[in-house]
């Protein structure tokens, strides 16, 4: 297995409307996390910070995908306990506190047949990948409008304008409901670039804009900055956070091209029919 | 059901869970005891298709009255006159609210049945199991297990009903649920599983709890945009093939072993995705599929080409293979059968000794675990 290098960039801005940045992110290769807190000052910001703290404690040793998924689930469970405890404690002071957060995670894991991206999603922050220059949304939002889209009730375009577009169906901190994230497992060759971002980015700029920003930013730091700045220019209605990770010196399978070129040459030379 | 009732409640009924079946359709509702299970499927089909009162009676009585000791039928009177027509045979008891007071319909002991057509019904309660208690649920149409069904204002019958008045309607807007007739048709061992989901049409109490448990949106000083909400605007699609019990995602013992031409052997105790660079999407940590990468120098094999998983239903205890829409297809050679090309998305059960050909010289032999 070839060594894999991860280059990354991250950017987070409060935006033009909010007074506090309740987003939080963690870049600790091979682990990347973005969390979008909900609940206002001393609510959402604390919830997303708890997520980053707990994930930062994950030992960095190599895992296979199964151990990785278990580690993510148990870390989310610890986050949930802490967020609930925090909300309960704060409520004791008289003011009712709502603290919740979305989470998206990208963790590089080592399986027997090579390194892979283990991705996890809880809420409406998103995971995208770039493969062969194309942007592709990997995660599926846990939101009311996504459920309506899945059911064929509304189109994706209608979803962007739907009054309930910001209502999410899974989150850390919620009293009830599932805490089980969706997992995705991608071979490195199928994801030259991974993008984690909050809805402060995806709610302000469309996928085509994202794709063009990513395409003209070979450096992941420029890409992350570009996405967040574009969200600000588009209005900056919410906290905007993006983490971009490039797989460098990747395990891309080049044998196909080599074989095809050789065959083409051999055909032209007449050594193959 | 009269128009008056339908307008007051927009077609929504409330019911208490019980052992009887209630087939609740747009025009006619039929309540049958658990012992009449064999008839329920046919009745539901009629009721759901909007059959008239007499159509439903025909189906009910097609195999004779003797095997039908108890039944309640409520519906639009139709040709028989203006109003709501009620038939009660056996134990049931129906109470209709009208402007002139309550009208009760029961069957006299020894009578074939009791029948009334009542005009101007504003609410109606059909009670078949008097001692039932519990939380009331609501349903628009569907096949549910009940002890009591209430329309409109609901004439209060029995003590249990008193508490039900306070039960709020679910706050989420549920579209008309699509009940699955299959739930009824299932017989034999699989039917046992359906007992766990008697209320095909609704999950109302859960939703109420979820609403209560989450921070109320109005109160939360939320992050400008994102708020936590409640899933369940739509009834969750049951996973897997409609009408079959969901496949066990991970089996305790492998149902087959796959021997790859490369020499690798993989036990089938969960979903296995085979391809040139396989990807797994949207899985839970408990049912993580196993990815098997096979070499394909000529790219004849798609990145995620084939799925092999433990079968469910009639395929229980066997493995099934599904071509996942591969570019070049998958050939399957089963002992004693001509070679076949797998149809994309269609699962085929694998016999021991079967050989799967993915292209590029990669074959998989299926053996006993």
What does this entry look like structurally?
The complex is a heterodimer of chains A (273) and B (369). In chain A, helix 1 runs antiparallel to helix 2 and helix 6 packs antiparallel against helix 7. By secondary structure, chain A is an alpha+beta fold. The longest helix of chain A has 27 residues. In chain A, the strands form 2 sheets. In chain A, strands 2, 3, 4, 5, 6 and 10 form a 6-stranded antiparallel β-sheet that branches. Chain A has a 5-stranded antiparallel β-sheet with strand order 1-12-11-7-8. Chain A is built from 8 helices and 12 strands. Chain A has one domain: Phosphatase 2c, domain 1 (4-Layer Sandwich). In chain A, 35% of the residues lie in helices and 27% in strands. Chain B is α+β, with helices and mostly antiparallel strands and 369 residues long. Chain B folds into 2 domains: 192 residues, no CATH class; 112 residues, Tumour Suppressor Smad4. In chain B, the strands form 3 sheets. In chain B, strands 1, 2, 3, 4, 5, 6, 7, 8, 9 and 10 form a 10-stranded antiparallel β-sheet that branches. Chain B has a 6-stranded antiparallel β-sheet with strand order 13-12-23-22-19-20, with no helix packed on it. Chain B has a 5-stranded mixed β-sheet with strand order 16-14-17-18-21, with no helix packed on it. In chain B, helix 2 packs antiparallel against helix 3. The radius of gyration of chain B is 27 Å and the shape is elongated. The N terminus of chain B is likely disordered.
């Amino acid at each position: 297995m070839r060594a894999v290098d991860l280059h990354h960039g991250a950017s987070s801005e409060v935006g033009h409307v909010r007074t506090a940045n309740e987003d939080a992110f963690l870049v600790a290769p091979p682990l990347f996390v973005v969390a979008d807190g909900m609940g206002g000052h001393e609510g959402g910001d604390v919830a997303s910070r708890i997520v980053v703290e707990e994930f930062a404690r994950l030992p960095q040793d190599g895992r296979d995908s199964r151990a990785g998924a278990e580690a993510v689930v148990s870390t989310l469970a610890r986050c949930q306990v802490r967020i609930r405890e925090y909300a309960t404690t704060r409520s004791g002071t008289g003011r009712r506190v709502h603290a919740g957060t979305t989470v998206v995670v990208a963790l590089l894991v080592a399986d027997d047949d090579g390194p892979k991206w283990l991705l996890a999603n809880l809420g409406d922050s998103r995971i995208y990948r770039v493969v062969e220059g194309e942007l592709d949304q990997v995660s599926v939002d846990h939101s009311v409008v996504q459920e309506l889209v899945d059911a064929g009730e509304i189109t994706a375009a209608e979803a962007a304008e739907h009054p309930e577009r910001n209502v999410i169906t899974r989150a850390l901190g919620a009293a009830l409901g599932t805490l089980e994230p969706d997992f995705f497992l991608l071979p490195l060759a199928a994801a030259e670039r991974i993008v984690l971002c909050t809805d402060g980015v995806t709610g302000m700029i469309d996928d085509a804009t994202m794709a063009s920003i990513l395409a003209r930013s070979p450096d992941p730091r420029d890409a992350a900055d570009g996405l967040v700045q574009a969200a600000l220019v588009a209005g900056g209605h919410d906290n905007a956070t993006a983490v971009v990770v490039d797989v460098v010196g990747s395990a891309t399978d080049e044998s196909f091209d080599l074989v095809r070129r050789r065959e083409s040459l051999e055909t032209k030379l007449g050594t193959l029919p | 059901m009269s128009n008056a009732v339908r307008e007051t409640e927009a077609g929504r009924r409330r019911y208490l869970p019980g052992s009887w079946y209630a087939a609740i359709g747009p025009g006619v509702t039929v309540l049958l005891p658990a012992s009449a299970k064999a008839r329920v499927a046919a009745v539901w089909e009629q009721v759901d298709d909007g059959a008239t009162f007499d159509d439903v009676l025909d189906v009910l009585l097609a195999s004779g009255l003797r095997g039908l000791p108890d039944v309640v039928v409520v519906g639009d009177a139709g040709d028989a006159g203006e109003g709501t027509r009620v038939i009660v045979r056996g134990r049931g008891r129906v109470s209709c609210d009208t402007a002139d007071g309550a009208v009760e319909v029961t069957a006299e002991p020894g009578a074939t049945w009791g029948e009334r057509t009542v005009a101007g019904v504003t609410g109606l309660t059909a009670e078949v199991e008097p001692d039932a208690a519990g939380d009331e649920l609501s349903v628009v149409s569907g096949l549910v297990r009940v002890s009591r069904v209430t329309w409109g204002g609901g004439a209060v019958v029995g003590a249990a009903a008193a508490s039900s008045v306070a039960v709020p309607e679910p706050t989420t807007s549920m579209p008309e649920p699509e009940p699955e007739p299959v739930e009824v048709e299932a017989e034999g061992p699989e039917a046992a599983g359906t007992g766990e989901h008697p209320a095909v049409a609704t999950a109302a109490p859960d939703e109420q709890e979820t609403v209560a448990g989450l921070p109320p949106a109005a109160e939360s000083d939320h992050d400008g945009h994102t708020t936590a909400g409640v899933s369940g605007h739509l009834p969750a699609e049951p996973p897997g093939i409609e009408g079959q019990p969901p496949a066990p995602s991970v089996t305790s013992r492998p149902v087959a072993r796959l021997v790859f031409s490369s020499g690798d052997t993989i036990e089938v105790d969960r979903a296995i995705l085979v391809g040139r660079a396989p990807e797994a999407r949207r899985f839970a940590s408990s049912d993580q599929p196993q990815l098997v990468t096979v070499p394909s120098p000529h790219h004849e094999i798609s990145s995620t080409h084939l799925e092999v998983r433990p079968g469910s239903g009639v395929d229980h205890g066997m493995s099934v293979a599904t071509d996942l829409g591969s570019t070049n297809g998958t050939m399957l050679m089963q002992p004693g059968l001509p070679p076949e090309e797998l149809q994309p998305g269609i699962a085929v059960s694998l016999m021991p000794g079967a050989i799967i050909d993915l292209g590029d010289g990669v074959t998989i032999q299926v053996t006993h675990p």
